[in-house]
Amino acid sequence: MFTFIHAADIHLDSPLIKLDLHENSPARALRQATRCATENLVRLALSERVDFVLVSGDLYDGDWKDYNTGLYFISQMTRLRDAAIPVYIIAGNHDAASRMTKTLRLPDGVTMLSAAEPQTFRLEHIGAAIHGQSFRTRAELNDLSASYPAAVPGLFNIGMLHTCATGRDGHEPYAPCSVDALRLKGYDYWALGHVHQNEVLCPDPLIVFSGNIQGRHIREAGPKGCMLVTVDDSGRANAEFRALDVIRWERIVLDASGMDAAADVVDHISNEISEVLDRNEDLPLIVRVEIAGGCPAHAELAADAERWVNEVRSAAIAASGSRVCVEKVKIRTRAPAVGHGSLEMAGGPPGELLRFIEEVRSDGMRLQELGLSLRELWNKLPRELKESHEAIRPDDPVWLAELLDQAGPLLLRRLLTAGEKP
After folding, report:
1. What pLDDT band is residue 146 in, cutting at 50, 70 and 90?
2. Candidates 3.40.50.300, 3.40.630.10, 3.40.50.150, 3.60.21.10; CATH matching 2-243
């Protein structure tokens, strides 16, 4: 019997997406989050006395700002070296051979697999064989697994691969492959990286995305960590997810349909925050709140959105002390149906504004025209903003509809407070 850790997408020293630094924002913890999660990974390997550790791509985030990133990683790896735990790493799209401009010699026992061709490492003393290949370039569009060698007879065969598999939302289509093709290799376990959500693609043999070890923005919500894999004497593998993150992102989506007052909405959100706290141990949380649905409270929320955003933040502080930081509050409510202050009944400029926004929002052609008007702006953006999880997406009707949901309350408040003295 032997055990190993399958991790991926460490993105060491990658900055978490910038937050507005409110009073309870865990700013210092955010700066150290990927390092602390890495320390948790090393601590787990030592406490479980694993036989080896695998890192399936994106250990780094490309170019280092300075050598401290590499020095820190080496300091952690020496702890594993001293415990005689070898580490095998493949480079992914973020740390491909063509992207890294700074490198340091790795400690004994830490192996970065070649980008030139697949390599195999036999661990005869425990009965395992590890196969893998690093990315040559950031945009690796070929199926690297197709050239991986056949399984070594009599050994437990592990394939390390950084891949989008058959494709995943939010992830570039790098090193695509199919589950059936991976199964045909005859390996016993596939340690996949690139997709940041933990997922088992196949139970037999186990084909697994471990996910990243620390969420960095709201699209990486929920527990993050690695797989602790135990292989019994008959060659059967059992993979157990172990959380490593030190700060966790969560999303609260409240359906406010039928709620009469904005204060009722805040009370419901406070209850949701309490539930999120209960299911996330003692970790600090970064929470995004989204409020949607047709309700009488819409007019009150829209008329003073800034106040109610901060009422939500106040409720989070009251419920959690310093554990919850509200990253963003999206108010996407609508006026209720006829008979409860509907769009049809609203008069004057506010009513005209609300009706116009709703007409555009529900008309596919008009949404498309809005997208075209934003395309020129999108073309001028630098690549990093185009690829950001908060990027302008002028071709996405869902994103455009959400844009109108956010713009409507802001415009309505400006209209209702026009002429008031500051």
Report:
1. very high
2. 3.60.21.10
